[in-house]
Specification:
five-stranded antiparallel β-sheet, mainly beta
Length: about 475
């Protein structure tokens, strides 16, 4: 088994190394692919070690979709890509962000782009994140970088490590007026989170100057996945509670006000949950889990959409948050539609909200796709769980509760999606997703680095799934 793994690993690693030193690779698809309902591209044919992705995707002002691909490897970093929806060209802009960050000679890997991708003045901004989730990886990690990518020139800009040895997990957003980026900085090394904790930072875009805005969670790790920067420059956020507990936070909303240079806390103000049929979700556990699991500001940034579904308190509604209204009385939170549970696999395109769910909403409530994607695809247990693309209209006067089911997420060759955690959409009805899919051959399969060696010494294993980027054209039948 060990020799077989080596025969697979060495060629893959050599190919990955040389790809990192080459110009961007462009793959063209036949025009006929645009007529398909779902068209996918295998990521593991490019790099075997890409094995997952959360967030890290956007539709940019140049009309292209930009997305990332991540690892859990101690030898390979995240990739960054471009997909042209008019030509169906796929371009690998960077195969390993460790090289782009200038850290190829370190033992630290910039293995993930686990953050939103935000845009300002023709630049995309995102953050890196550690990949190797074990003690050795935490000890060797140099720290997360804030990166820029210029749409017009294709050049990267490294704004540097925000806080040495700390990662960013994972929110980033931009104040386009003040030209500031905001990030959520998190320690993963035990000695750092026990002696310190999570911080909010700002980065001045013109100068790169970094400022610590304060300790957000003391003596622990933590997470905040989304920032909403309103039209006054206030930065709104919640803390994710699935794996972390925070003192005096069961449903808090936080805001950094730059004019006052301070963080304000609204205690226990997030709405109590309800299922799609109106059944209350107000048990002690779900009340303690309440947090934003997805947000999208409206174009004028005066309000934002948000959800608190899977791993966020169990609510099954789409909400509108208006910070100009009374937060403590609940007036600022307006339910827009009942859509069923959702998580990162949510996006606004034009006047529609798209979301991915299991066919059976009960499965969506009790299962997290990352936890069950390893189930044998031929088993009855898995076959009966199919991921569907769904949407509602956000147009004024429309019935927001009328859900359109666009069908199963199955690509041009019959592969089925098993997990989607990265998603964006455009106004033409095209939805772009990245995730774990069935595979047709070992060439498409993920080669995953193991946190612990197998008894025979193997460090890698081929999985029964692979990583794919796909475009789902909802206007095709």
């Amino acid at each position: 088994m060990k020799s077989q793994a080596i025969r697979v690993i060495i060629p893959a690693l050599i190919a990955c190394f040389f790809a990192c030193t080459q110009p961007p690779v462009v793959e063209k698809a036949p025009v006929k692919e645009k007529e398909l309902k779902v068209y996918s591209i295998s990521m593991n044919k490019i790099c075997k070690e890409w094995d997952g992705q959360w967030q890290g995707m956007t539709m940019a002002s140049d009309g292209n979709c930009y997305f990332s691909s991540s690892t859990h490897s101690k030898g390979h970093g995240a990739g960054f890509h471009k997909f042209n929806p008019e030509t169906y060209e796929h371009t690998v802009l960077a195969e390993d962000m460790t090289y782009v960050c200038g850290e190829e000679k370190t033992l630290s890997q910039q293995g993930k782009i686990h953050s939103p991708v935000v845009e300002c003045d023709g630049w995309l901004y995102f953050t890196t994140h550690l990949s190797n989730y074990w003690k050795e990886g935490f000890e060797q990690y140099t720290g997360a970088h804030v990166m820029g990518y210029e749409l017009a020139t294709g050049k990267f800009r490294d704004l540097g490590i925000v806080k040495p040895r700390y990662s960013i997990y994972s929110a980033i957003n931009v104040d386009p007026v003040r030209k500031k980026l905001y990030v959520f900085v998190v320690p993963f090394l035990q000695e750092l989170y026990e002696s310190d904790g999570c911080h909010l930072y700002s980065i001045d875009i013109p100068t790169g100057e970094k400022k610590d805005l304060g300790l957000m969670a003391k003596g622990r790790k933590g997470a905040s996945f989304w920032f909403y920067v309103d039209n006054s420059g206030n930065v709104w956020f919640t803390l994710w509670k699935k794996h972390y507990k925070y003192e005096n936070d069961k449903g808090n909303l936080y805001v950094y006000r730059p004019d006052q240079d301070k963080v304000e806390t609204y205690f226990d103000v997030l709405p109590e949950g309800k299922l799609i049929d109106g059944t209350p979700v107000n048990d002690e556990f779900n009340l303690s889990q309440r947090s934003w699991t997805w947000i999208q500001p409206l174009p004028d940034r005066k309000k934002c959409y948000f959800t608190m579904g899977t791993l966020g308190g169990g609510d099954e509604r789409l909400w509108l948050f208006d910070p100009s209204k009374n937060i403590e009385t609940g007036e600022a939170f307006e339910p827009i539609a009942s859509i069923g549970s959702s998580f990162f696999q949510t996006a606004v395109g034009g006047d529609r909200l798209y979301f991915v769910q299991y066919a059976d909403l009960q499965d969506e409530r009790v299962l997290f796709s990352e936890d069950v994607r390893e189930i044998d695809p031929s088993s009855k247990e898995y076959v009966e769980r199919k991921l569907h693309m769904r949407s509602i209209s956000l147009a004024e006067g429309a019935d927001h509760n009328a859900i359109t089911d666009h069908g199963e997420i199955i690509d041009q060759d019959g592969r089925a999606a098993r997990m989607i955690m990265s998603m964006t959409a455009d106004a033409a009805g095209r939805v772009y997703v990245y995730g774990s899919w069935h595979v047709k051959s070992f060439k498409e399969a993920t080669l995953q680095y193991l946190l612990f060696e197998y008894p025979n010494g193997d460090l890698y294993r081929l999985l029964k799934r692979g990583e794919f980027f796909a475009v789902f054209n909802t206007v095709q039948k």
